[in-house]
C-alpha cells in the first residue's frame, strides 16, 4: 500500500464518519460543523484524484459561502429542535428504505470504477495545460450553450426567491425611491426669518418683587 492509498482510506473514513454525524448530531450547529468537515475531506479526495479545480471550488463555494450562511441562519434563528424531531421514528422505515435504495443505485453506478486493474493513461493535453485550464476550454467551447442555460436558470431562481420572500408588512418602514428622486427643496426645507436678539416683554415681569430682585 502506497501513501496515496493510505490517504484515500483515511479521508474516506473521516468523510463517512462526518456524514454520519451530520444526520445524527443533536445540535444543528454541530451538524453544520460536521458537514464542513465532510466537505473538507471530500476536497482532499478530489485532490488525490488530481481534480484541483473541483477541490478548490468545493472549499470556496460550499465551505466558504454556503456553510457560513447556513451557520449564520442557524445561530440567528431560534429553531425548536424538539418540534422538528417529532414523528422521527414514524417516518424512519420509509426514510431508511429510500436511503438504502439510493445507496444501492450509487453502488451499481460506481462499482465499475472499482473493477479497473490499471489506472487509465492521462491525457497529454491535461498534463501540459492542467485540468483547470482544460476544463475552462471545454466549458466555454463545447459546453457554452448548457452553461448559458444554467446561468439563466440560476438567475430565474434568484428572482423567484426574492419575489417569494418580498412581502410588504404594515409595521415596516420603507421608502419609495421614485418619490425620493422627485423631491424638491421646498418639500424638505423651510426658511424662517428670525431676529438675532429678542427684547424681553415688560408685561411679562413677575408680580412678586422678591422674585424680581432675585
Secondary structure: helix percent = over 70%
Number of strands: 0
- CATH-wise, what's the superfamily of the domain at 7-79? NADH-ubiquinone/plastoquinone oxidoreductase chain 6, subunit NuoJ
CA(first)-CA(last) distance: 103 Å
Structure characterization notes:
By secondary structure, this protein is mostly helical. It has a domain at 7-79: NADH-ubiquinone/plastoquinone oxidoreductase chain 6, subunit NuoJ (Four Helix Bundle (Hemerythrin (Met), subunit A), Up-down Bundle), CATH 1.20.120. The chain is built from eleven helices and no strands. Helix 1 (3-24) runs antiparallel to helix 2 (28-48) and helix 2 (28-48) packs antiparallel against helix 3. It is elongated, with a radius of gyration of 33 Å. It starts with a helix and ends with a helix. The model has no long low-confidence stretch (mean pLDDT 80).
In short:
With 214 residues, this protein is mostly helical.
List keywords for this structure.
Four Helix Bundle (Hemerythrin (Met), subunit A); elongated; mainly alpha
Topology, pairings included?
Blueprint: H1 3-24, H2 28-48, H3 52-76, H4 81-85, H5 88-114, H6 124-129, H7 131-139, H8 144-165, H9 177-181, H10 185-188, H11 209-213
Helix pairs in contact: 1-2, 2-3
Amino acid at each position: 500500500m502506497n501513501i496515496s492509498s493510505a490517504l484515500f482510506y483515511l479521508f474516506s473514513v473521516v468523510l463517512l464518519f462526518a456524514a454520519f454525524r451530520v444526520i445524527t448530531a443533536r445540535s444543528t450547529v454541530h451538524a453544520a460543523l460536521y458537514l464542513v468537515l465532510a466537505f473538507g475531506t471530500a476536497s482532499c479526495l478530489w485532490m488525490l484524484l488530481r481534480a484541483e479545480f473541483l477541490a478548490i471550488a468545493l472549499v470556496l463555494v460550499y465551505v466558504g459561502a454556503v456553510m457560513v450562511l447556513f451557520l449564520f441562519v442557524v445561530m440567528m434563528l431560534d429553531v425548536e429542535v424538539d418540534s422538528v424531531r417529532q414523528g422521527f421514528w414514524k417516518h424512519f422505515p420509509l426514510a431508511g428504505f429510500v436511503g438504502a435504495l439510493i445507496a444501492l443505485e450509487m453502488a451499481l453506478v460506481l462499482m465499475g470504477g472499482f473493477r479497473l486493474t490499471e489506472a487509465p493513461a492521462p491525457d497529454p493535453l491535461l498534463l501540459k495545460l492542467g485540468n483547470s485550464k482544460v476544463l475552462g476550454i471545454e466549458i466555454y467551447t463545447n459546453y457554452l450553450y448548457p452553461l448559458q442555460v444554467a446561468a439563466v436558470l440560476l438567475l430565474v431562481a434568484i428572482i423567484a426567491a426574492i419575489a417569494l420572500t418580498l412581502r410588504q408588512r404594515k409595521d415596516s418602514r420603507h421608502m419609495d425611491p421614485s418619490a425620493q428622486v422627485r423631491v424638491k427643496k421646498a418639500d424638505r426645507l423651510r426658511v424662517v426669518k428670525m431676529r438675532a436678539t429678542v427684547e424681553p416683554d415688560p408685561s411679562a415681569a413677575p408680580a412678586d418683587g422678591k422674585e424680581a430682585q432675585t
